[in-house]
Design goal:
By secondary structure, the chain is of the alpha+beta class. Helix 2 (30-44) packs antiparallel against helix 5 and helix 12 (433-449) runs antiparallel to helix 13. Strands 12, 13, 14, 15, 16, 17 and 18 form a seven-stranded mixed beta sheet that branches. A six-stranded antiparallel beta sheet has the order 3-2-1-6-5-4, sandwiched between helices. It has a five-stranded antiparallel beta sheet with strand order 8-7-11-10-9. The protein has 18 helices and 23 strands. Helices cover 45% and strands 22% of the residues.
């Protein structure tokens, strides 16, 4: 180190600090700054050598990047270790200036060889910090042992502080310049993008005043951007959409919520097009709206499709309503003659003793049963397809339903030598009881029809969180390639001759449509020569079935015998005659009335009836159930009553149950009608 007088040393230090401070304020090159700082440090401390080491990110050392007094080629190659025993390492770790008065006394100094090669013995080092982070180290060295004092260390620390502050300024300015450049580039790209995209783009100030439109606005509307910015853009809105658009935009501006509306905008050619306009608020860091950004997109093609679909939907709904009315009328009008034929055949059978005549009657009854079955099946299919079926979803006891179905099909199964079994846990499922029973009956009917040996199993099992209802047979099975085909209308794989005993090929079509209406999944598995399994997945219910869901019970009280008086409410002359003849042949006395009013007016002067048999549809504005209630009230007692109807759209069966009225649906078989009347006979 060079020995200077105290005043000279102090003057040199102050000059070095002042020079470095002034230079650091204006320097815009990092390397130049470091070189000047190294020069001023050597000069201020009268050192022969100085060095600035830059901390290498990802490395635990410092690369010499600037200095004074070194041989050519040393800088940018020399690495100072960050070892805590070395000057750079100790200064960076402690955050304070450190010194070595005589390096020869430090045999384990990690950088000893570097400094010894240049004849350097004393070293002082201090860390350089930028915004609080260590970015390097500043050191000075001399060829002779030297004891640095506190003033030396303070000066060195001041020089490093100035250097670190200048480095931070350069970093901040570089970051600012980069951000400004990015902003300029971003704004340029934004402007280019908004001019190129095939949408109208706009911005507005926080008060909702539009201040920018892209070129697409002018191309689309023919209005100049300056006119739109002056507030003339509402003039291009359709008169029917103008008020609601203004209201929606005002609400968005007042509440700060996003803006979205569909409206019509006039094109430059004078035509109107549907647009989807949207706007979003943009906020500053304090949460204040500083700008609105919006777009307008032509959706006319989509809107026209939407309007067409809406019109088609309305047409379809009208068609469905018309179909529902047709089904109701057709059901009633077609059931009437079938009902009359059925009753007349029953009367004819009772009045004819000749065996040959009975054979003919039996054949006619068979044909009539086939006609009725086909009619009912087609009607069910039409109802499911038109969506007029009103679902009654409630807990249903499967064991009760399956027992009833098994009982009904057992005679047919025994006649073919088949074993029909049921297996149920007594669980409840959530479904429409009527539709589910129709599904299961069709599956069991098919199983019985197409199984010649073995048996049929109807089983309900828990599966996951629900139930699975299986109908399993040991029939001939179904080829894999025809599993979907079996659900088509009038499709019969094993009845190509279309024999009547083989059914009509509609059962499984009804099964699929009913299951779809209920949301129940249908699965089929089959093996040729081994049989088939049809499965229905059902939702599990923990609640018991609702009360009164079983068949109606006969009213309690005095019950008439055959020979009693029946009050018949029926307006169709042919059915009046057929019913009267059938009942009178069985020993009943029959009183006939066409309306509820006529029946009530005849009660005081006629024999008191013992039971009522009423059609649901009656002229005069009063239906059969209401007539039954009025007659019971007039007589002061609850007469046994049976309601007959051909309606499919009204849920009269549930109403009849609630009144304790038996229910029969047209066409009625004579045996079924007489069985209901016989159920009213007294117990012996």
């Amino acid at each position: 180190m060079t020995i200077l007088s105290r005043p000279d040393r102090e003057l040199s230090r102050q000059r070095a600090l002042a020079d470095l401070g002034a230079f650091a304020l204006t320097c815009d090159d990092r390397q130049t700054l470091l070189e000047v700082a190294a020069h001023q440090a050597a000069q201020a401390l009268a050192a022969t050598h100085s060095m600035i080491g830059r901390y290498r990110a990802g490395q635990v050392d410092f690369l010499a990047v600037a200095g004074r007094g070194w041989a050519p080629g040393i800088l940018d190659r020399t690495v100072l270790t960050a070892h805590p025993d070395g000057p750079a390492g100790r200064a960076s770790l402690s955050g304070q200036p450190v010194l070595f008065a005589d390096l020869t006394l430090e045999p384990h100094h990690p950088d000893r060889a570097l400094f010894a090669a240049h004849g350097l013995r004393c070293i002082a080092a201090t860390p350089i910090r930028s915004d609080g982070d260590a970015v390097g180290v500043l050191l000075v060295a001399g060829p002779h042992p030297h004891q640095f004092d506190a003033t030396d260390l303070d000066l060195l620390d001041s020089l490093s502080t100035l250097t670190g502050a200048a480095i931070h300024r350069l970093e901040v300015e570089a970051e600012r310049d980069a951000l400004l450049g990015e902003l300029r580039d971003s704004e340029q790209r934004y402007r280019q993008m908004t001019e190129l995209i095939p949408h109208i783009v706009w911005t507005a100030d926080p008060n909702g005043q539009v201040d920018y439109y892209n070129r697409r606005w002018t191309d689309y509307t023919g209005l100049r951007v300056t006119d739109a910015v002056r507030g003339e853009w509402p003039d291009c809105l359709h008169p029917d959409d103008s008020d609601r658009t203004a209201a929606a935009w005002a609400q968005a501006v007042n509440t700060g919520c996003a803006y979205e509306i569909e409206h019509r905008i006039r094109r430059s050619d004078g035509g109107w097009r549907w647009m989807l306009s949207r706007g979003w608020p943009m906020y500053d860091r304090h949460g204040r709206i500083v700008k609105w950004f919006g777009t307008a997109t032509d959706i006319d093609a989509e809107k026209q499709v939407q309007l067409a679909l809406g019109a088609a939907r309305d047409t379809a709904e009208r068609a469905n309503r018309s179909k529902s009315r047709f089904l109701a009328a057709a059901s009633h009008d077609l059931r009437q003659p079938l009902n009359a034929i059925s009753l007349l055949l029953g009367t004819l059978r009772g009045r004819t003793a000749e065996p040959e005549a009975h054979d003919i009657i039996r054949q006619i009854e068979g044909s009539l049963d086939g006609m009725i079955e086909l009619f009912e099946t087609l009607l069910d299919l039409s109802k499911l397809e038109s969506g007029v079926v009103e679902l009654d979803i409630r807990p249903v006891c499967l064991s009760t339903m399956l027992s009833r179905i098994a009982q009904d099909f057992s005679p047919q199964a025994r006649a073919k030598g088949l074993r029909l079994r049921i297996r149920s846990s007594g669980a409840f499922c959530l479904t429409d009881a009527t539709l589910l029973e129709r599904i299961v009956r069709n599956l069991v009917a098919n199983a019985v029809r197409y199984t010649d040996r073995g048996g049929i199993l109807i089983a309900a099992r828990h599966r996951g969180g629900g139930l699975r209802l299986d109908v399993i047979d040991s029939g001939q099975g179904i080829p894999d390639e025809r599993l979907e085909e079996i659900f088509l209308e009038f499709q019969q794989l094993q009845n190509e001759a279309r024999e009547r005993s083989g059914g009509h090929g509609l059962g499984l079509a009804i099964v699929r449509r009913a299951a779809q209406s209920l949301g129940h999944r249908i699965e089929v598995r089959s093996r040729l020569g081994h049989g088939s399994r049809f499965s229905v997945e059902l939702p599990l219910s923990s609640a018991p079935a609702a009360a009164g869901s079983g068949p109606p019970q006969a009213p309690t009280g005095a019950i008439p015998q055959r020979g009693a008086t029946v009050l018949l409410l029926e307006d169709d002359p042919l059915i009046q005659i057929a019913t009267r003849m059938l009942l009178e042949d069985q020993g009943y006395r029959v009183l006939v009335a066409q309306t509820a009013a006529a029946a009530l007016s005849s009660l005081p002067g006629a024999d008191s009836p013992d039971l009522i048999l009423a059609d649901y549809r009656l002229p005069g504005g009063t239906d059969g159930l209401t007539a039954i209630e009025q007659i019971r009230a007039a007589l002061g007692r609850s007469l046994p009553a049976t309601l007959i109807t051909g309606d499919v759209t009204e849920d009269v069966e549930q109403k009849a149950r609630a009144l304790g009225v038996h229910f029969l649906r047209k066409p009625v078989k004579p045996g079924d009608l007489l069985a209901v009347l016989d159920a009213c006979r007294p117990r012996t």
